[in-house]
Design a protein that fits this description.
Layout: E1 3-12, H1 20-37, E2 47-52, E3 55-64, E4 70-78, H2 79-82, H3 91-99, E5 111-115, E6 118-127, H4 132-145, E7 153-156, E8 163-166, E9 170-177, E10 180-181, E11 185-186, E12 189-192, E13 194-196, E14 206-208, H5 215-221, H6 229-246, E15 250-251, H7 255-262, E16 269-274, H8 284-295, E17 298-301, E18 307-315, H9 323-347, E19 363-365, E20 369-370, H10 371-389, H11 392-404, H12 412-416, H13 423-431, H14 436-444, H15 459-478, H16 492-505, H17 512-520, H18 530-551, H19 556-563, H20 573-584, H21 589-605, H22 622-643, H23 647-653, H24 658-667, H25 675-692
Parallel strand pairs: 9-12
Antiparallel strand pairs: 1-3, 1-9, 2-3, 4-6, 5-6, 7-8, 9-10, 11-12, 13-14, 15-17, 16-18, 17-18, 19-20
């Protein structure tokens, strides 16, 4: 079968820019996979995806005109139905063969194979390979069907009667195998060899594609279109950098904005615009946000990261005189900046403190009260935490920051740009002359907002952020609003990870379970079973922590070993995990872990409580005497190291127990007939178990 390169393009009206990249990848990927499944591609076939505002296309190398024939084994019917008692063909089997164009002589070619629990008759047949027309038609339909379309629209075809559903009206279909048109159709369109170039810049409105390999180049030279999304994106990046460098400035880095702009233009042309410097009095976050979100501009920053009054425009046209384009964009952005300045000036006429009472009118949750009530709880929790980790000064600052933290929610600026919550609170606090620790805490109490985000920059921010997230988590759990499956409408998994990170990375000496209990007591309406709520929250957080530790490289066994003890201080967990990892590398580790598991199983089977105490006068066997002596020598040392938080050294010290432990299990009968001997040996094992499992449950390391 001959092989040629294939090009398929669907030309449409402007596609949704935020979805274009995914649409292009999906279209090319699904079409190729379908061709491959039908045997039309080669092992070395390569796919190239194209996606511009008005087209989805794919280029595939080494595509056959027809797939190779293949042998398949076709099931006909159960043996009991197809053959009689004498092994002769039944009328049912003959009828089936006749329907396939075969006569009774074909019975001799049938084979018997097990089909589940029953034996069936199979016929080996040659399946004719799919033609390119058949395979490509199927592939195109699958590619269109599986597109991740944000919203489908219905539109009428040119015949005036028929309607189709697609993301945008489609105007032409191009399908070339080499230079040959492949006769396929979709969305009321028949494939041809023509497409459309740039709306304004193309040399000719219609571009006739010579063959599959000339598509991209012809579109570029004749149609003024860079069809490749990746190539167009790279060109925009190059032009942005070059234009910024001429001004000794740098554009903001925003991959999402870059992708969106790439999806808005077919041939980019970067231009420089500017606005009046008076607008720089407004916090730069406001200006940057409005320029990015509303106008798709790239603001320019100086070497210190400070916003300048210049910005870059990615235009879709390249006129000889760009002044009109630049001037038009400057006129458009000016009212946006003026609005931001107006909001900023108006907001500063009222203090944050004066806005606190207005929070009572803002509903937080119908079962948890208003945002004002929530603020009071967060403030009380902040003061309590502040007293524990930093004393009265920290508590006072944290309490004030918590009182003011949500007040910017009712400012004009945040009402217009919700993304600026916290940021504007910090600016307004600084404008009022409040302490910087308090001001930065107002901004930082939302942190960490996402995985990998920075933690609050000071102790006040840490205190308020911790209180805010704890109040959210505990409050919602107390009313039964906990995540289920993949549903987490209140982002409680993110809140839990934020709490965990702050406790661990800041080494806060706050016992976790007690912390949850204290937060729960801040709520007026206590759940019917407070203990169960605390336990549920604790388990939820430990589950999040377990996942996080495994994602960061720890093995499930190591994580389980540490977390199964439920350390009171989460800040100790990294040290304990390091100690377990170090211990696991010792040659003695496997034997000690296995012995520990054996000890755990023995103690679990004892119905009554086993005290970790040994009566030396009841030690008879040399092996148990030796183990007790070894424990007596090493346990004080290991305990001392544990108390000083040197967990690694504490576990290493226990390595000397391998030999006496092995000897004990080889030569001592724990379940002695004498109850006193049995109890004493169980006490010895309990002492061993206690000594070995202070840092982590080492039995979890056993296979």
């Amino acid at each position: 079968m001959s092989q040629k390169n294939l090009l398929v393009e669907l030309f449409v009206e402007e596609l949704p820019p935020k979805a274009l990249k995914k649409l292009g990848e999906s279209f090319s990927g699904t079409l190729f996979d379908s061709l491959k499944a039908n045997g039309l591609t080669a092992e070395n076939s390569v796919t190239t995806s194209y996606a511009s505002p008005r087209r989805l296309a794919v280029h595939v190398t080494a595509v056959a005109t027809q797939a190779a024939d293949k042998q398949i084994s076709q099931k006909l019917m159960p043996v009991s139905v197809g053959l009689d008692a004498n092994g002769n063909a039944t009328p049912a089997l003959i009828k089936r063969l006749n329907g396939m164009g075969l006569d009774e002589s074909a019975v001799a070619q049938l084979t018997k194979q097990m089909d589940g629990k029953n034996e069936a008759l199979f016929l080996d047949v040659t399946q004719t390979g799919a033609t390119l027309n058949e395979g490509l038609q199927k592939a195109l339909e699958e590619a269109i069907q599986k597109l991740p379309i944000p919203k489908v629209m219905s539109y009428q075809l040119a015949d005036g009667w028929s309607s189709v559903n697609f993301v945008r009206p489609a105007h032409s279909l191009l399908a070339l195998h080499g230079s040959d048109v492949v006769a396929i159709s979709t969305l009321g369109l028949n494939a041809g060899n023509t497409t459309q170039g740039h709306r304004f810049e193309a040399a000719n409105p219609t571009v006739t594609i010579k063959d599959a390999d000339s598509y991209a180049e012809q579109l570029k030279t004749e149609g003024a279109v860079i069809a490749s999304f990746a190539e167009r994106r790279a060109e925009i990046e190059r032009q942005l950098s070059a234009a910024a460098a001429k001004q000794n400035l740098k554009p903001i880095e925003d991959d999402a904005l870059l992708d969106e702009v790439t999806a808005l233009v077919e041939r980019p042309n970067v231009l420089l615009g500017q606005f009046e410097e008076v607008y720089l009095e407004v916090p730069q976050e406001c200006l940057i946000l409005t320029m990015k979100a509303n106008q798709k501009y790239f603001p320019l920053l100086d070497s210190n990261g400070k916003l300048t009054n210049k910005f870059l425009i990615v235009s879709n046209i390249n006129p000889s005189d760009a002044s009109a384009v630049i001037g038009g964009n400057e006129r458009v952005v000016r009212p946006r900046l003026a609005d931001a300045k107006f909001f900023f000036d108006q907001d500063r006429k009222k203090t944050l403190e004066s806005r606190i009472t207005s929070l009572e009118k803002v509903v937080y949750h119908n079962k948890l009260g208003s945002q004002g009530q929530r603020t009071e709880r967060v403030s009380a929790i902040s003061i309590a935490i502040g007293n524990k980790i930093g004393g009265a000064d920290l508590a006072a600052k944290a309490g004030l920051a918590a009182q003011l933290a949500k007040t910017d929610l009712i400012t004009d600026m945040v009402g217009e740009f919700p993304e600026l919550q916290g940021i504007m609170g910090r600016y307004y606090a600084q404008h009022e002359g409040l302490n910087n620790d308090v001001a930065f805490a107002i901004e930082d109490h939302y942190k960490p907002r996402f995985a990998g985000d920075d933690l609050p920059r000071n102790a006040v921010g840490i205190t308020v952020a911790l209180a805010d997230k704890l109040e959210t988590l505990v409050g919602l759990f107390s009313i039964g609003e906990k995540p289920t499956g993949d549903k987490d409408p209140f982002a409680l998994r993110r809140q839990a990870l934020g709490i965990i990170r702050m406790l661990i990375e800041n080494k806060l000496p706050l016992p976790f379970e007690q912390l949850i209990q204290d937060v729960l007591s801040a709520f007026d309406n206590q759940p019917a079973d407070s203990a169960a709520t605390v336990q549920a929250i604790k388990e939820f957080c430990f589950d999040r922590l377990s996942v996080n530790l495994r994602e960061n490289g720890a093995t499930p066994q190591e994580v389980d070993a540490v977390l199964s003890l439920e350390p009171a201080l989460l800040s100790e967990i990294p040290q304990r995990l390091t100690a377990v990892r170090t211990f696991a590398e010792l040659v003695e580790a496997p034997a000690l872990a296995a012995a520990n598991k054996r000890v755990s199983n023995i103690l679990k089977k004892v119905e009554s409580e086993v005290k970790a105490e040994v009566k030396t006068n009841l030690l008879q066997e040399p092996a148990e005497i030796a183990l007790n002596t070894a424990l007596g020598n090493v346990k004080p040392q290991a305990d001392k190291l544990f108390e000083s938080s040197d967990y690694t050294a504490s576990l290493k010290a226990l390595a000397v127990l391998k030999a006496p432990v092995d000897d004990f299990f080889d030569n001592v009968m724990v379940n002695a007939e004498d109850p006193a001997l049995k109890a004493n040996r169980l006490g010895l094992l309990a002492t061993l178990h206690q000594a070995m499992n202070r840092v982590a449950d080492l039995s979890k390391l056993a296979g």
